[in-house]
Design goal:
Length: 443
């Protein structure tokens, strides 16, 4: 089986991030070890987003971003040609220095780093969830005792913890520290006027994370560089482009097939107890990482790229949303079109319409996975086998398009918002891929 993934060199990184530090490879390289430690921590991260208050899709994109970065940085000295991103952000000076005379057991570094960053990112989670974090760390610790010396493990643990501590401290300055505590902003007053967003049920006047688009991104300036063209100009006149755009959604909502409804529900990420948008995207990646038996190096790079992409994608999207403040379908259909009893298939989120966040994040996700597995890689998503059955796709582009279109079928987004969102997300994914300067690996 062939797979494309970053292998020995990440030289292009230095072209974008001046001042990044290229480590010499210390000890047995990370590619010598299985990728299970990386994958099990990402699985737990998904579980925590489902059961921790405040971790909606937007907040979870951020937590995945920092977790993925931490995973990569915790083993980067074990990657041939590996380049740390942290010096660019002035994070590296607080990381415990690597000593070339020491030997590091890189799975232990990843385990320690992921345990600490996960506890910090999910500080408000339940005692039972904290126990799950401790239990996973302890399980790997016990396993490692038979695979490395105590010195190799202690060296690695110290380095991994220092990486996690440094990244978490840096995260506090991104504009969204502890976002789960303030999902809505009581001081935010949305602009009023024809065609502008009207807060929708169930939160009504409470806007969700209205300043998220101002947060610091991993790639500086990426949100500004990936902004879409303006949406279709507002009009309440029948026959106008805006009216016809909404009318398409309205007419379509009355003729949904069973297959359409299943599609809506499959991608209705964010329903309590289900996966949210970045968790679902990450779960697809996890399935493919396990199927292709990625080693620790491959898994860490894949999760890092993907996590940073979805995090930067939602910041770019929310910058768009609160700039244009476009009215949601439910408000226009009930008001301007005179159908007060109409409702969307799924609940309309409490933030503006344009662009469609699911499309932006899914396209960024798909672009990263294309860089790893190839553009024409067919796969099956088993995320909801028990509820809706498996769904198979001929390509990652097909996955992103279906996920985005599900929001039109669900009645919460206009088709042009999905189209623009897919382009926006691909631009974000492309910039993350450029950052990592992909090489090929066949086996």
């Amino acid at each position: 089986m062939k797979k494309n993934i970053l292998f020995a060199s990440i030289v292009g990184l230095a072209l974008i991030f001046n001042g990044c530090y290229k480590h010499p490879v210390i000890g047995p390289p990370a590619k010598k070890y299985a990728g299970d430690v990386a994958t099990e921590w990402m699985k737990l991260h998904i579980s925590l987003t489902k059961t921790t208050p405040g971790f909606n899709s937007v907040v979870s994109n951020r937590s995945f971003g920092y977790a993925g970065l931490t995973l990569y940085e915790s083993i980067v000295p074990g990657i041939s040609g590996g380049i740390s991103l942290l010096p660019k952000w002035n994070v590296y000076p607080t990381v415990k220095p690597i000593r070339e005379r020491n030997i590091y057991y890189w799975p232990a570094s990843a385990n320690a780093a992921m345990a600490l960053i996960t506890k910090n990112l999910f500080a408000n989670t339940s005692a039972a969830n904290m126990y799950s974090i401790d239990s996973l760390e302890a399980a790997f610790d016990a396993k490692f005792q038979t695979q490395a010396t105590s010195e190799q493990i202690s060296n690695a643990v110290a380095f991994g913890k220092s990486v996690a501590s440094a990244i978490f401290e840096w995260s506090k300055s991104d504009g969204a520290h502890e976002p789960y505590l303030h999902i809505t902003d009581p001081n935010y007053t949305p602009p009023a006027g024809p065609g502008l967003w009207i807060p929708t049920p169930p939160l009504f006047g409470k806007a969700v994370l209205p300043h998220w688009g101002d947060n610091r991104t991993f790639i500086p300036g990426i949100a500004e560089a990936t902004q879409p063209d303006p949406p279709i100009p507002y009009s309440s006149e029948p026959g106008s482009p805006f009216y016809e755009m909404v009318n398409y959604l309205y007419k379509n909502s009355s003729s949904l097939t069973h297959a359409d409804t299943v599609t809506v529900k499959f991608w209705a990420d964010g329903i309590p107890g289900s996966l949210n948008v970045p968790a679902h995207a990450t779960n697809i990646l996890i399935q493919l990482v396990e199927l292709n038996k990625f080693n620790l190096e491959e898994a860490a790079i894949a999760y890092c790229k993907h996590s940073m992409a979805v995090s930067d994608a939602v910041i770019s999207c929310f910058k768009t949303k609160y700039h244009f403040n476009q009215i949601r379908p439910v408000s226009y259909i009930r008001g301007e079109m005179g159908h007060p009893d109409w409702n969307s298939v799924i609940t309309t989120p409490s933030f503006p319409e344009y662009t469609a966040a699911h499309a932006v994040v899914s396209a960024a996700s798909a672009t990263i996975m294309e860089s790893i597995f190839g553009k024409n890689y067919g796969f099956t998503d088993h995320s909801y086998d028990a509820l809706y059955g498996a769904r198979s796709f001929a390509s990652f582009d097909d996955y992103a398009k279906e996920a985005g279109h599900s929001r039109v079928l669900g009645g919460i987004h206009y088709a042009p918002s999905v189209k623009a969102g897919l382009i926006q997300g691909r631009k974000v994914g492309d910039k993350i891929n450029q950052l990592f300067n992909i090489s090929g690996l066949s086996n």
